[in-house]
Amino acid sequence: MRKLVSWISSKKTLIIISIILISVMYLCITKKDTPDSKASNASQKYYTCITVENGDTLWEIAETYKTEEYGSTNEYIAEVMSINNLKSDNIQAGTNLLIPYYEVKSYQ
User: Fold this and answer.
1) pTM of the model
2) What's the average model confidence in pLDDT over 6-27?
3) Is 58 exposed, middle or buried (0-12, 13-18, 19+ CB in 10 A)?
4) Residue 67: which residues within 8 A CB-CB, separation 6 or more?
5) Is 98 found in the same domain as 46?
6) What range defines the domain where residue 72 resides?
């Protein structure tokens, strides 16, 4: 009888330790994906549509709309080309382009 009680007690301990370890691992994994709740500002991505004017280039458009969230002007131009299905960086006047940009919103 003592062996049975001892065996059940050791199983309970093992189950409790396992639950605690799994809970800690879950919290560690999910915590890194949650935003900092103390943030007062957040940069959010938006899109606007523009019509290309005579003489406009993707480089000039990037100078107007690119923000610090992009690593380089080339990276920004590559995104503009991708979302607009452009095969080259040549753009024609009258063409409508979807342009990404970031804007900081204050949350206080």
Assistant:
1) 0.58
2) 78
3) buried
4) 43, 101, 102
5) yes
6) 41-106
